[in-house]
Amino acid sequence: MISSAKYRLVHPERSDREASAQSKGARSAGTGALRLRASRSAQGEPVALSILLLFAAACGPRPVTYRQDVEPLLQARCASCHQEGGIGPFALETYEQATQQAGAIKAVTQSRQMPPWGVDGSGACQKWSDSQWLSDTELDVLARWADEGQHPLGTAGMPLVSAPVAFEPTHTLDPAVDYALRTDLTDDYRCFIVDPGLTEDRFVTAYRVDPGDARVVHHVILYAAQTEAQDAAAAQLDAAEAGPGYTCFGGPGFSARPVVGWAPGTGVTRYPEQTGVRLLGGRKLIMQVHYNTRLGVGVDRTRVALELAADVPIEATIVPLADPSLEVPPGQAEVSQVSELSLPLPLRVKVRGVFPHMHKLGRKLKVELLRSEKWQCAVDVPRWDFNWQRFYFYQTPLAAVPGDSLRLSCSYDTSGRTSPVTWGEGTDDEMCLVGLYVTPR
Question: Domain boundary at 312, 342, 362, which?
């Protein structure tokens, strides 16, 4: 207790031996030019730390600086999109650029509009690998930097950027021609048929999407045809339109399995260790590219680099979890549909990742798994954004067994619609779908 302490200030030029002789058992703590020495209370409690904390509180927190606090966050969470020639509407590569956008940075991070990390990363619903989620402490740093107004430069802090992911591509998927973006559309969805040239089955273990024009490529999903009939369906859609590829929206126009999901800011994606997704020999792939033309129009030739293996220790499967009976009423600011489903697999599995998917009316998505008569959160998307679709992988896989009950909840804003919204591939349709990245062990 402070009231029972005996303390005094000791000048640093006095020796410890001299000071000790005058105050036996004293403890010291540095306070700059002076040192504080305090004895214990009658109950034997050290009190110097308490006094120092009072001094520190009186002084207040140090100012947030660009070099030490802000720049590492911008480099780790923002710079991959917000760079010259990137898809971000402005660059955040320098102190001057960041200072000009300090207010905007605070606004979009406080609302969690940016950085675009769709799933809840707070730890309340699972923990995720390579998370771009900003912690509350990091949000506070960006807010204080904007609010303090002076924007001090400061000295360099520790970089937060992770080491590059190892990647050895074996195949590059190339549409083979440039695509001229449509000038009459703000959002142009185009599917391109690409042939990986496989005569035998191979396994995708990692991938990287290389946008042709990073200003306009907003997301890429690669679908794998599973049958000859699906190859024929894609060819028919392609032949029905002039120019490279064909118009598509929710998917490739038929049921196919997604094997790659990418949004701006995503570098190399490596599937969980020792796992991979099978590509069938002789089958085609369909590359869906979403172009947003607000930052320009022109031509694009996006490519996808794949790291393929002849075999993997653990084969993964992407299992769709969905309720195609979806139907929600029109004219509602928020309307939800909740479905209880059984895991559609015949054996025990580990769920290692998820790929959430809705269309433009979607607002929220959540999957829960029934455990010991309680619903356990498996994935929570509190703010769905159609423009930022990607895979998310768990730090610790979830165990699931045949017949496990799952609850799939999706919310929509149908206030602009005058008729019921149902399941479908079209722009006026909706979906409530999660691809589960599962392995048998």
Answer: 312
Rg (CA), the chain: 28
Q: Identify the burial level of 337 via C-beta atoms within 10 angstroms of its C-beta, where 0-12 means exposed, 13-18 middle and 19 or more buried.
A: middle
**What is the band of 126 on the pLDDT scale with cuts at 50, 70, 90?**
very high
For residue 377, what is the DSSP state? E
Query: What are the residues whose beta carbons fall under 8 Å from the beta carbon of 205, sequence distance 6 or more?
Result: 270, 271, 275, 276, 307, 308, 309, 312
**Token digits of residue 33:** 């030019």
Residues 182 and 307 placed together within one structural domain of the fold:
yes
Q: Which residues have a Cβ under 8 Å from the Cβ of 187 and sit 6 or more positions away?
A: 218, 290, 291, 292, 293
Q: Is 352 exposed, middle or buried (0-12, 13-18, 19+ CB in 10 A)?
A: buried
Q: What are the residues whose beta carbons fall under 8 Å from the beta carbon of 363, sequence distance 6 or more?
A: 334, 383, 384, 411, 412, 413
Task: Note the pLDDT tens digit of each residue in 95-115.
Answer: 888 888 989 999 999 999 899
Residue 28 is predicted with a pLDDT of 38
Q: How many domains does the chain fold into?
A: 4
Mean pLDDT of 173-195: 94
Range of the domain at 31: 2-59
Are 236 and 108 contained in the same domain? no
Query: Which domain CATH number covers 304?
Result: 2.60.120.310
Residues in the chain: 441
Query: Is 204 domain-assigned?
Result: yes
Do 438 and 353 meet the contact criterion of CB atoms below 8 Å apart? no
The predicted structure's pLDDT at residue 160: 53
Q: Give the Cα separation of 137 and 437 in Å (integer).
A: 31
Taking residues 350-376, what's their average pLDDT?
92
Q: Measured between alpha carbons, how far is 359 from 386 in angstroms, rounded to an integer?
A: 6
**258, 280: one domain:** yes
Largest CA distance in the chain: 96
Residue 352 and residue 184: Cα distance in Å, rounded?
A: 41
Q: How many CB atoms lie within 10 A of CB 25?
A: 8
Whether 153 is covered by a domain: the verdict is no
pLDDT above 90 coverage of the chain, percent: 53
345 and 256 fall within a common domain? no
305 phi-psi bin (left φ>0, alpha ψ -120 to 50, beta other): beta
Q: Which residue has the higher pLDDT, 358 or 80?
A: 358
The verdict on residue 48 lying in a domain is: yes
Helix (H) or strand (E) holding 97: helix 95-100
